[in-house]
Design a protein that fits this description.
Layout (H helix, E strand, L loop, with lengths): L4 H12 L3 E5 L6 E5 L2 E5 L4 H13 L2 E5 L5 H4 L5 E4 L6 E6 L3 H20 L10 H21 L5 E6 L6 H8 L4 E5 L7 H4 L5 H8 L4 E4 L2 H14 L3 E3 L4 E4 L2 E7 L8 H6 L3 H11 L6 E8 L6 H14 L7 E8 L6 H21 L7 E4 L5 H10 L2 E4 L8 H9 L6 E5 L4 H4 L4 E3 L4 H13 L2 H17 L2 H13 L5 H4 L8 H21 L2
Parallel strand pairs: 1-4, 1-7, 4-6, 7-8, 8-9, 9-12, 13-14, 13-16, 14-15, 16-17, 17-18
Antiparallel strand pairs: 2-3, 5-6, 10-11, 11-12
Bound molecules: 6-O-phosphono-alpha-D-glucopyranose.
Length: 525
């Protein structure tokens, strides 16, 4: 039986046994902002909100997040609450207000200048700054207060997201030992040689071990995490069950590869996607040429300069392609106060300009760089209208653009060129898998996206679509909730007798099988 919104709702009802669901994530699923004096709302770029919003729409509850839009306060009540989605509310967004100094130390500092580079193997140097660290601690406390307020008066499951809140689980458990606390880390986890250089490694790990359940995308991330814990802290590690015991608290550590809601593609495409695609072609002077698209936040982990270099190399190797295609990069501005991000935007602009100057003609520019936020309505039209999509991350926990692209291709066409260093590559071996550091291989991957025979595209795309349909976001959340449900003390008594195999066991067997197949594929070249 496949996973749907309805099946997840059923799992949530039985497994949570009436406990309130509270999600905590730094990024809010909807941002209100002023445009021409009016309040409008947008969905932010990034995989976390894309994945979790459908889960919250299915299960209901409260999402606690930083209120980051300039019109956010204008639409919330006195405690920072507002119903979302704004056009048809069915869960609550509780906004937490942060000062500029808070944002500087916690978001731009510890989270995105220290933990982000530390966890991604992309050779960006992490910044270790005492003041940033103290602010990170303080902001984790601020969020703990908001969560505890939301959890008042009954049982609750607090589901914490990502590297912004490593200290939060321990704080919550200290205040309310009865809360069930789980966390999902959306980015990779490094090995001990890398992670343990952090001056606050022990405090971070200890905070994370306040969780009952801790999830990563891959088994490899889980192994790295346990290795770090083993080296840094006094604790007992049960390697059979993948659990850590410390100060009376047991934390189970498991892989849960995240996904998307495949049905949203049809919603975003609608009946008029071709008209909208033509309008975009006209606006950006794309004619009816083939398109290769890239869709990312402008982030140094995404390998955007590497893919531009590959476009350059492609045109050197195949000059006959001049005038035949465009490489269109949608690059949502991201974390722009951090120098490395500003420098990257400049680098991408300069590279695009150089390639266009070198290969372009009066009426044809190979690279089109759209450095602004685009909503899913536009992005899905681009996915659907393109010959190929390139995901060339240098290191990426999962990468949901790869999965979104596949869900948009109900025509069973289109080529996905996918970095081997993404979590998604394990699940989508039918993509053209590339090493983003290898410019020749990347250029050949782009060439494949423009020349692959239709039958071959169809064969690969069908398999990728079946994989994402089956391993969708409802399955991810359902399996996670099942695992969490097992940890909620009294729900086991009210659970119906299990009539089908435990989804957690099923997914574990599947992950093992998929890892085995990927290993075979890699060793056989
Ligand atoms: C990654 C992180 C998320 C984050 C997203 C967008 O996917 O794992 O936590 O929300 O990037 O980044 P931003 O800094 O804009 O929230």
């Amino acid at each position: 039986m496949g996973w749907s919104k309805e099946r997840l709702q059923e799992v949530a009802r039985t497994r949570l046994g009436g406990a309130k669901l509270i999600v905590v994530a730094n990024r809010e699923p909807y941002i209100h902002r002023y445009k021409d004096g009016e309040v409008e709302w947008i969905r932010p770029a990034g995989g976390l909100t894309t994945a979790l919003d459908p889960v919250m729409q299915a299960c209901g509850g409260v999402w606690v997040a930083h209120g980051s839009g300039d019109a956010d306060r204008a639409v919330t009540d006195a405690s920072g609450r507002v119903g979302v989605p704004p056009d048809d509310p069915n869960y609550v967004l509780r906004r937490v207000w942060l000062s500029k100094d808070d944002e500087e130390g916690y978001y731009y500092g510890t989270a995105n200048s220290m933990l982000w580079p530390l966890c991604h193997q992309v050779f960006a140097r992490p910044v270790f700054d005492q003041i940033h660290w103290e602010t990170y601690r303080k902001v984790n406390e601020t969020f703990a207060e908001a969560v505890l307020e939301e959890a008042q008066g009954g049982p609750a499951l607090v589901f914490v997201q990502d590297y912004h809140f490593a200290l939060l689980p321990r704080l919550l458990k200290a205040a309310r030992p009865d809360l069930v606390v789980a966390q999902f880390w959306h980015i990779p986890w490094p090995g001990p040689e890398k992670f343990l250089v952090c001056p606050w490694a022990r405090e971070l790990l200890d905070g994370m071990l306040g969780n009952d359940l801790f999830g990563f995308h891959t088994q490899n991330d889980c192994n790295n995490f346990l290795e770090c814990v083993d080296r840094a802290l006094e604790c007992r590690i049960d390697r059979e069950r993948f659990a850590v015991q410390r100060s009376g608290q047991v934390t189970t550590v498991r892989p849960f590869p995240i996904s998307v809601d495949p049905e949203l593609a049809q919603e975003y495409l609608g009946d008029d996607w071709e008209d909208r695609a033509n309008a975009m072609r006209k606006k950006h002077r794309l004619g009816d040429r083939a398109l290769i698209v890239g869709v990312d936040r402008v982030d140094y982990t995404k390998g955007i300069p590497e893919r531009l270099q590959a476009v350059d190399r492609l045109l050197q190797k195949h000059p006959e392609l001049k005038g035949q295609f465009h490489f269109l990069q949608v690059g949502a501005p991201s974390r722009t106060h951090i120098p490395a991000y500003r420098d990257l935007t400049e680098e991408v602009n300069m590279l695009a300009e150089r390639i266009n100057w070198e290969h372009g003609t009066e009426d044809w520019q190979p690279v089109v760089f759209l450095n602004e936020h685009h909503g899913p309505d536009d992005i899905f039209v681009l996915y659907r209208a393109s010959a190929g999509c390139v995901v060339s991350s240098l290191h990426d926990g999962m990468n949901l653009v790869a999965k979104e692209f596949v869900t948009a291709r109900d025509d069973d066409r289109g080529v996905l060129v996918l970095s081997q260093f993404t979590g998604a590559a394990r699940e989508l071996p039918d993509a053209v898998i590339v090493n983003p550091f290898d410019v020749e291989e990347m250029a050949d991957g782009l060439y494949a996206s423009l020349t692959m025979p239709a039958q071959e595209q169809e064969r690969r795309m069908r398999r990728m679509r079946a994989q994402v349909d089956d391993h969708n976001i409802y399955r991810w959340a359902g399996v996670l909730l099942s695992a969490i449900g097992k940890l909620i003390p009294d729900t086991s008594e009210v659970l119906p007798t299990q009539v089908e195999p435990d989804p957690l066991d099923v997914i574990e067997r599947e992950i093992a099988r998929e890892n085995y197949i990927t290993a075979l594929r890699l060793t056989s070249g």
